[in-house]
Amino acid sequence: MNHVKAVIVAALVASCTAALAADGVTDRAAPGPAQPMVPIPGAQVLPLTVEQRLSALQQQVQVLQTQVAALQSVLKVTSTSTTLQGPTLFLMSTSGTTIQSGAGINISSGGNLAIQSQANASLRAGAAAAFETSGQLDLKGAVVKLNGGGKPVATVGSAVANGKILTGSATILGN
Length: 175
What we know:
Helices cover about 25% and strands about 10% of the residues. The strands form 3 sheets. The protein has a 3-stranded mixed β-sheet with strand order 3-7-4, with no helix packed on it. A two-stranded antiparallel ribbon has the order 1-2. A two-stranded antiparallel ribbon has the order 5-6. The chain is an alpha+beta fold. The radius of gyration is 32 Å and the shape is elongated. It is built from 2 helices and 7 strands. α1 runs parallel beside α2.
């Protein structure tokens, strides 16, 4: 009987050790049983019985099961899709983030949508592009170039003679 218990304990230890090593994240683990006590220097440490080891392993398995359940509640993985779902999602990277798709990307918001950059921003299309709003469109910039233009565009009150703009906008440029 002791041999069977030893085999079970060895299998559980190997399984838990492999799971914890593969996880590599212990500082963000779900709350579980108290951490093992640190022995006092010079104190005699009695070896744990098989029952005590088995109990500790059962507690570790329960913690792992709780962590897996928490992951499964927000992460759904099938053969055709992966869904990350929660009341609030926050993705953060200190060096960069790339979102890439071989087919298409859709961003949809039931409320406001804000995209911000502390430096340059670029939006490019390999084919046609459209920007549409049912409300007012406010296009702002220190200088607005239409089609990469460099000549002043006529605005209300600009002087035009012989098809040439004499006093166009200094901040709206076209071809």
